[in-house]
Fold:
Amino acid sequence: MWLRRDLRLSDLPALQAARGTDDSSVLLCFVVDPRLERSAGERRLAFLFESLAEVEQKLDGRLLVVRGRPEEEVPRLARIVDAEAVHISEDFTPFGRRRDEAVADALGDIPLVATGSPYLVSPGRVTKDNGEPYKVFTPYHRRWRDHGWRRPADSTLSESAVVDPSDLGRTGRIRVPKAPVGLSFPAGEDAALARWAEFVDNGLADYDETRNDPAADATSRMSAYLKYGNIHPRTLAADLGRGRGAQAYLRELAFRDFYADVLYHWPHSLWHNWNRQFDDIELDTDDAARTRFEAWKAGRTGFPLVDAGMRQLDETGWMHNRVRMVTASFLVKDLHLPWWWGAEYFLEQLVDGDMASNNHGWQWAAGTGTDAAPYFRVFNPEAQAEKFDPKGEYVRRWVGDVEADDYPAPIVDHKAEREEALRRFGQIRDS
Structure:
């Protein structure tokens, strides 16, 4: 069993498949890929390594961790234990698909068996009647609900079913790497289950009304746990009733599946405009643009809600979703900077940085993604603050006194930049 984005032991269909009907013995392994070590932000690495450490502890030290290229390490380990098969949860990202194809080729006669995925409904399953993928969320959402999903899987393990790597020779085993930085909340399956139980008891019923309040601890904070598979969305969906809060939460899980589906069908959209019509839109990339970008990253734009979000991100590695939309809109519509600058910076900082959700969320803000009517949406950061942080609690928490002498003046005029953004989009539309 080759673990990747499924760092848990419960509700893990691939582990259930590896055990088989005869409770076969299973070697559980994780390959620390140097490519991902180089590309992942320190907080994501910390969450990954802390999650791995918990899995190892739950297995009484029987998790085999190695470092190297998976197409070399996985076949090598499979040969050491004379494996009948290598089991995985399917990965649908462009990188993951290429990696798994390379591993399958290197395994030769040993099958690479994919069971389940990190999603309620795996990419490619929800299509129009003619088999084409959906480009807009609302009709996707309706068909997604009709498709449905399985109940949580029973993947309990007996101790005798787990191969002890200590009994094997020349595995190249390494210790679970230490987290490079501290985290603002704990990683791992136990923490995920505890946080979810707390949210179900205290936050779910009112989620539809409170989820847009950045000052309140009203969101589930499950995104990082879902990112690394400390918990499966099936486990969450099984606890959702028919109340308005529960249905609003289920819709967010649908968005997660939708963006994964978009990336699966249009892999170019990871770092390029999904809507190629906007490839020629005018963007600012000169030295002045870089200076404004640095002010945005530092939370010193002179727009309190934007600055509060960026400072929360810098300090904690997390940002409230409403504020993510506001800060993203400000970068692409007020500062006219490339959306991928912001997407890359978010991935560097976020604990929950998920490629599909992050980058397509940025394209939603930029107006270059799957949204049906994107170009005229420009968030007013002051109006957003009045609506969603009317008492200024969130801003005070992260910025302090906006009347202080050292707080910067606004770096742009929002009204003027909104008109400029519409002008630039108008040029593309008219052409």
The chain has a mean pLDDT of 95. The longest helix spans residues 244-265.
